[in-house]
Amino acid sequence: MDVLDVAVRVAAVLVAFLVLPLLVGQTEHKVMAHMQGRLGPMHAGGFHGWAQLVADGVKFAQKEDTVPAGADRRVFQLAPAVALIPYLVVLVAIPLGPDGMVGQVVDAGIFFVLAVLGVGVLGSLMAGWASANKYSLLGGLRTAAQLMAYELPLLLSAASVAMAAGTLSLTGILGEFEWWWVPWQLVGGFVFFTAGLAELQRPPFDAPIAPEEIIFGAYTEYSGLRFAFFLLAEYAGIVVVSALTAVLFLGGWHGPWADQLGWLWMLLKTGALSFLVIWARVAWPRLRVDQIQKFAWTALVPLALAQIALTGVIKVVVSG
């Protein structure tokens, strides 16, 4: 790749990183307003509350940036960046369309994206530990326990797709994709998507930030733009998890007229899955910490193992 090509790819990834999470955030305001009858988000700025996101940004920018006196100052200040930057790195490896429409092709793409996503959760752990607040520490510990529980089904469900395609590359998986994969990989897709929600601490898996119990978990002591970075990381995580689910289990850019409209199919599938994330927040009550752990180990892990076994049997039958 020449310098111009690299510059264009980097610029495209940055634009996606800066725009898509904000669109998801704006959509969440509107969807929740419709589902729950909220008036404020529907009127800010006039037509359909178009200025709600702008108002939120101005609000965060105006708030004082405070650091607790007993906090580990450097770790406290670094935590929002650690939570946010990994999602930017992951976007580099997610293919948007055919014919090289990807930031960078990574041979071990599944390993790369899942490893980098695991780094992002460290931001919450750092925030909880460095805040010198018992509620923040408790939220950080809940985050660690949730990560350990849901990382395994996430990896196992992704492994079933890699087995089916015979490659660890995300672009390679899409190159081998067949539509008849969708029904028998459906369980794996459910496991992957659900585990991704749990790692993002989205409802109903938001016990680590339960405001009724521990104020706001690891983020209790944060304010202003640092708190906004954690929110942006959450919305960026929704985009990344939805995009990865679309690539691994829904064919990514595959669809009618994929050569011309592949990027559109990818965006539509990612948008539909992001809507499901928002819908789950409105429709499902928060699970208890013990219920979250039980669901991971007694439901998702067995389902992911069953999916791998099914994939192995089908691969043997097809190749035979």
From TrEMBL:
HAMAP family with a match to the protein in the record: NDH1_NuoH
Family, similarity comment: Belongs to the complex I subunit 1 family.
Keywords: Cell membrane, Membrane, NAD, Quinone, Translocase, Transmembrane, Transmembrane helix, Ubiquinone
Membrane topology: Multi-pass membrane protein
Complexes and interactors: NDH-1 is composed of 14 different subunits. Subunits NuoA, H, J, K, L, M, N constitute the membrane sector of the complex.
PANTHER family from the UniProt entry: NADH DEHYDROGENASE SUBUNIT 1, NADH-UBIQUINONE OXIDOREDUCTASE CHAIN 1
Principal EC category: translocase
Assigned EC number: 7.1.1.-
Full protein name: NADH-quinone oxidoreductase subunit H
Keyword Ribosomal protein: no
Catalytic reactions on record: a quinone + NADH + 5 H(+)(in) = a quinol + NAD(+) + 4 H(+)(out)
Top-level taxon in the UniProt lineage: Bacteria
Transmembrane segments: 6-25, 78-96, 108-131, 152-174, 180-198, 227-251, 263-283, 295-318
Functional note: NDH-1 shuttles electrons from NADH, via FMN and iron-sulfur (Fe-S) centers, to quinones in the respiratory chain. The immediate electron acceptor for the enzyme in this species is believed to be ubiquinone. Couples the redox reaction to proton translocation (for every two electrons transferred, four hydrogen ions are translocated across the cytoplasmic membrane), and thus conserves the redox energy in a proton gradient. This subunit may bind ubiquinone.
Pfam families: NADHdh
Coiled-coil regions, chain positions: none
Cellular compartments annotated: Cell membrane; Membrane
